[in-house]
Amino acid sequence: MNELLEILEEIQPGVDYENCTTLIDDHILDSFSILSLVSEIEDAFDIEVLPAELIPENFNSAESLWNMILRLRGEA
Amino acid sequence: MSYHLMDYFAFFLPVVLIIYQLVPQRFRPVALLMANYAFFYMISGPLVVYMLFSTIFTHYIGLWLENVSLTAEVEGKALIMKKRKVLVFGIAISLGILGVLKYFNFFGQTVADVLALFQVNFVYEPIRFMVPIGISFYTLQMISYITDVYRGTQKAEHNLLKIALYLSFFPTIMEGPICRYAQVGEELYAGRSITFENLKFGYQRIVWGLFKKIVIADRLYATVSHVFDNYRDLDGSVIAFGVVCYTVQLYMEFSGCMDIIIASGEIFGVKLPENFRQPFAAKDASEFWRRWHITLGTFFKDYIFYSISLAKPVKNLAKKVKEKLGRNVSKFVGPTIALFGVWSCNGLWHGANWTFIFYGMYYFVLIFIENITEEPVQKLAQKWNINRESSGYRMFQAIKMFFIINIGELFFRANTLQDGFAMLGKIVTDFHISELLGKLSSLKMDVADLVVVAIGIVVVAIVGSLHERETKIREEIAKWVLPVRWGMWYAAILAVIMLGAYGTGYSIVEMIYAGY
Any idea what the Cα angle at residue B236 is, between residues B232 and B237, rounded to 5°? Predict the structure, then answer.
């Protein structure tokens, strides 16, 4: 989870990622940031994110992102 | 039949509502479907067979995809590949029909033009295709449903009637909004009773839509046509005035019709997605497209932008760029390629004309520039202590967007691409404001027209700013005391009846987006 928070901070600094649950709904992460994020987490966690995963439910918070990563790694 | 004509809101819609309400709930979906097909038939006649085929085909592809998932003896990537073949087949047929009907002549003529450059004599004889109403809109709905089933975000629908209602709902067939099955599929089939609340709020919004369309947009039609058809004889200032009038006309017309459409859905208890959110309040071109024709933008984002960005070859290219040039450059590779795809499609979707393709490329370049300059601009603003939230900076953004939007609409409306450049050239090099003031009377517009349009724009701007503050206007008005409330609605209805641009001296103006 810490590694994910570091990636998020690098892509879009200055956001309270541990508590924010509206990263997409409030346009904190735009399409470009989402794609940068996908590229980084694919490399960092050795997963493949398909277009079907790019839904607000998966990207609205660090926790939902982490749950998606665990699921794609087969750990959830 | 058009949504802004009496035929629709005073006859067709009420008749359908009465029949719908009278039949037992379990038969209402069938009654609604019959209304949908009657509406389609009244506009496109026997071309209704296209809708029939599209419905059966979409239903079948959904079931096929489900069947592949359930019966495949493989899993993982092999299963995805199997499903992808079905998806590609489904999209190819859907787009193939649209492509032949809308773009065949355009590409035929383009081939002839290219061959002519190489001295090859090839004369293309255009074929006259009969194009069913709304094909550009319902084809995108077909693709969204098929793709969602492929991606697993939507279950395949077994009930053919539900798919039929989804693709043919009469309020949306001519101009959208482009709905997702998950948004409206079940509501359309529910057959809910029409409530007084929905009927009241629905018709209130229809009056508002008519105000925007008939009172403001249609009053500008003659001026806009005159300027775009005769720009060679006009001063740059007059052309600029005509372009601004067109931007206002397009917005009032499209958003006004959208009010009527969404209100019609509301009466049936169907919540259609909004298509506009105060687009002129946008700070940049990207935001403008999150506020203008929203459902088209989200369609392209979800089904083209992300698909291209996450495609293997694009990801591999981005990785290679990252190794050589670093992350600051590589992060733009995927999105830029995807943006190019999105804006090519956006331009082409509007029609087979180079003006639309240019319009798409115009926004591609603008949004690309915005993306790569965002960080440097932010750093410069910090260095120079510029507050990007200050009213001065907001004013600068508003002026910038005024030019961006109007130049875009100039090319969007121009009769040809050459005409667009010639008009822009005249605005830049031959602009004399005194010419405009002296020529207003010859612009198919009198002082009364100007005053009505100006007041109309102010009213729409006030309502827009209330919406921006998330005020629920109809609910607020409903709390007013009865005489004031009724006085307000009577005034609105009278404004449409008395100030509407119809009758002697005006011709019926067809809906612009119904032609796309």
Answer: 135
In chain A, residues with a C-beta closer than 8 Å to the C-beta of B301 are: 31
Q: Domain A2-8+18-72 carries which CATH code?
A: 1.10.1200.10
pLDDT tens digits, residue range B263-283?
Answer: 999 999 999 999 999 999 999
Q: Please state, in angstroms and rounded to a whole number, the distance separating the CA atoms of residues B153 and B161.
A: 21
Domain parsing of chain B, residue ranges: 6-193, 194-276+414-516, 293-398
The DSSP call for residue B214 is I
The pLDDT, as a whole number, for residue B81 is 86
A52: which chain B residues are within 8 Å (Cβ-Cβ)?
A: 151-153
| Residue B177 near residue B262 (C-beta atoms within 8 A) | yes
CA B386/CA B18 separation, integer angstroms:
60
What is d(CA B105, CA B299) in angstroms, rounded to the nearest whole number? Answer: 26
Burial class (CB in 10 A: 0-12, 13-18, 19+), B456: buried
Give me the half-sphere count of Cα atoms (radius 13 Å) on the Cβ side of residue A22. Answer: 3
Nearest residue in chain B measured CA to CA from A33 = B331
Phi/psi at B326 (nearest 5 deg)?
Answer: 95, 170
Residues A34, B303: Cα–Cα separation, whole Å:
15
**ipTM of this model?**
0.81
DSSP type of residue B277: S
Q: B362 CB contacts (<8 Å, ≥6 apart)?
A: B407, B408, B411
State the SS3 of B54-72: HHHHHHHHHHHHHHHHHHC
Determine how many CB atoms are found less than 10 A away from the CB of residue B430: 14
Taking the C-alpha atoms of residue B276 and residue B292, their distance in angstroms, rounded to an integer, is 5
Among partner residues B305, B330, B332, which is closest to A31 by beta-carbon distance?
B305
Per DSSP, the residues of B436-470 read HHHHGGGTT--HHHHHHHHHHHHHHHHHHHHHHTT
Q: Which residues from A are below 8 Å from B154, CB to CB?
A: none
pLDDT digits 0-9 by tens, B370-403: 988 988 888 898 888 888 888 899 999 999 999 9
Cα distance between residue B240 and residue B392, in whole Å: 25
**B153 with A55: Cβ contact below 8 A:** yes
| B335–A31 C-beta distance less than 8 A | yes
Which residues of chain B fall short of a pLDDT of 50? none
Give the type of residue at B138.
Answer: Y
Distance between CA atoms of residues B254 and B294, nearest Å: 12
Measured between alpha carbons, how far is B507 from B500 in angstroms, rounded to an integer? 12
Query: Angle at Cα B134 formed by Cα B363 and Cα B129, nearest 5°?
Result: 100
Q: Is A39 close to B318, i.e. CB distance below 8 A?
A: yes
